[in-house]
Amino acid sequence: MRERTIASHFARAALGGARKRGYDYSSLLQQLGISAELLDEPRARLAPEQFTRLIQNLWLALDDEYLGFGPAPSKPGSFAMMCHAVIHCRNLERALNRGLLFYSLFPEAPRLCLSREDEWVRLSLDDSQLWDPDHFLTECLLVIWHRFASWLIGQRIRLEQTTFSYPRPGHGAEYDLLFPCPQVFAANRSSLLFHSRYLHMPLLQDERTLKHFLERSPADLLSRPDDGDSLSSQLRRLLSRDNARWPDLETVAAHLHISPQTLRRHLREEGSSFQELKDQLRRDIAIYHLGRADLSLQQIAEQLGFSEPSAFHRAFKKWTGVTPGAYRAQEN
Asked: Which UniProt keywords apply (predicted)?
């Protein structure tokens, strides 16, 4: 179970446009099982499907796929129509150019452009005209175009660099999950850089797969993890496969054919640690089960390797700011 949870920051940020438009979203949050306590707690996390439903419902309520952050609304269905316009293109380059042309037909849509830099390609976003205090729409547009392009060719496009036209935000730690590559802040533009070889790849999707893709997209693209190539991501995948026993650092190091000291050093260079990765995964698994009625609190505690439910209770509150019982109560 590798589902990553979503920081409560993104739910608060997504609601910013609704607040600006005077939309009372309290009944929507109640319907989705998102409590005010959860939203107000900076450490709290949401299940991916919860976040997907929030975004989809906000689109409909505001009649705007830009959620109130763009210079003008984008009618729900615009993204789907763009997808239909590109799905029969011969390769990714044609698809991206046609998709960007589609949005350029709307004079007040955020401007995106594709440019060559030797063997690299840069997808740039002009976010200067956005009302986007938390950079939510900028993040969404960059993530969606990267993951949509990857879906079209059936493989993850490796990002070489991302740049942002603003200083590193308070929730910058989350960017390692959104953009698993070197990041440059306070740059002259917001952009994604990747190798030009991807542009020549054929599209592997068609009308049939597009129909399924559009049932939850692009909201699903925002909540789906991008595991990337980092050691942290490899470890998370490894621990996900073997969380019944929760292997220790020495066992994992042996599996990777490196020494425990080397493993610690590499994780430190990525700004992480083995315990932190294990706790993040245990937190996400706990949130997954707490949102369902499949396991009792004691069974969840045992699955996560806690000998006592009280230890699980303390750890979960430390991770998320709320108790397991309080989290389950607001979910049901």
From this structure: DNA-binding, Transcription, Transcription regulation
pLDDT of 330 strictly over 50: yes
**171: which 2 tokens?**
């929730």
Question: What are the pLDDT digits (tens) for 45-56?
Answer: 998 888 999 999
In this structure, are strands 183-184 and 159-163 parallel, antiparallel, or unpaired?
Answer: parallel
> Is residue 175 scored above 80 in pLDDT?
yes
- Report cis status (omega within 30 of 0) of the bond before 180: no
Q: Where are the beta strands (DSSP E) in the chain?
A: 6-7, 45-46, 111-117, 120-126, 159-163, 183-184, 190-195
Torsion sign, CA atoms 42, 45, 51, 53: negative
Nearby residues of 253 by Cβ (< 8 Å), 6 or more positions away: 259, 260, 262, 263
CA angle 155/158/160 to nearest 5° reads: 165
How do 183-184 and 190-195 pair as beta strands?
unpaired
**For residues 8, 13, 14 and 19, what is the CA-based torsion angle, rounded to 10 degrees?**
120
- For residues 303 and 322, give the distance between their C-alpha atoms in angstroms, rounded to a whole number: 20
Do 200 and 92 contact (CB within 8 A), yes or no?
yes
Beta bridge partners, 159, equal 194
CA–CA separation, 28 vs 263, rounded Å? Answer: 45
- Both tokens of 84, joined, read 């239909």
Q: Three-state DSSP class for 25? A: coil
